[in-house]
Specification:
heterodimer; A: mainly beta; seven-stranded mixed sheet; 0% helix; B: mainly beta; six-stranded mixed sheet; five-stranded antiparallel sheet; globular
Chain lengths: 113, 111
């Protein structure tokens, strides 16, 4: 199966700082990756679709200037949470399409103090 | 508006019992996927169904895609404590397109 990795697996930062999360497809090329946010005991909420070589498509209500997405290669997409605040604390998960399915990374736990 | 209604959202059963989780929509999907997620980890793909009426089995798990490709079910036979987790259904309107997730079913199987 397809393997997707994320780095870091967890991060703690101070309010006002920026945090970058990496998502990599390890054994396949992904022209499209997706970024999700998940709150405890809830389902996944799609934040944006990351397209290699072009601008990301953001879901309604997601601030594009706050959540910067870069998909510079066919195996790497990054999500940068700019000027993070405590309300940005969450579990962030990426996925990549391969064939008919989407494969998910292990997630990144972000805690903003 | 939730486009994919998943039920039940919480289920607590005893080891050995059977259970069924449902995902229903008024929309047609090109494919539907089921995932299982454990706390602090990403969802793990269990199965993808693409053909109306399709039935797939994965050990004690049986997945069915509705004839009209608008609904799906997951049936677990003789549940075990290791089946505990969050089960998610997700539909895609096109191959490689974004997924529409159900609300999830938090399953707890007690020994």
């Amino acid at each position: 199966g397809a393997v997707v990795s994320q780095h870091p697996s967890w991060v703690i930062c101070k309010s006002g700082t920026s945090v970058k999360i990496e998502c990599r497809s390890l054994d396949f090329q992904a022209t499209t990756m997706f970024w999700y946010r998940q709150f405890p005991k809830q389902s996944l909420m799609l934040m944006a679709t990351s397209n290699e070589g072009s601008k990301a498509t953001y879901e309604q209500g997601v601030e594009k200037d706050k959540f910067l997405i870069n998909h510079a290669s066919l195996t790497l997409s990054t999500l940068t949470v700019t000027s993070a605040h405590p309300e940005d604390s969450s579990f962030y998960i990426c996925s990549a399409s391969w064939g008919l399915a989407q494969f998910f990374g292990p997630g990144t736990r972000l805690t903003v103090l | 508006t939730q486009l994919l209604e998943q039920s039940p959202q919480f289920l607590s059963i005893q080891e050995g019992e059977n259970l069924t989780v449902y995902c229903n929509s008024s929309s047609v999907f090109s494919s539907l996927q089921w995932y299982r997620q454990e706390p602090g980890e990403g969802p793990v793909l269990l199965v993808t169904v693409v053909t109306g009426g399709e039935v797939k089995k994965l050990k004690r798990l049986t997945f069915q895609f509705g004839d009209a490709r608008k609904d799906s079910s997951l049936h677990i036979t003789a549940a075990q404590p290791g089946d505990t987790g969050l089960y998610l259904c997700a539909g895609a309107r096109s191959q490689g397109g974004k997924l529409i997730f159900g609300q999830g079913t938090e399953l707890s199987v007690k020994p």
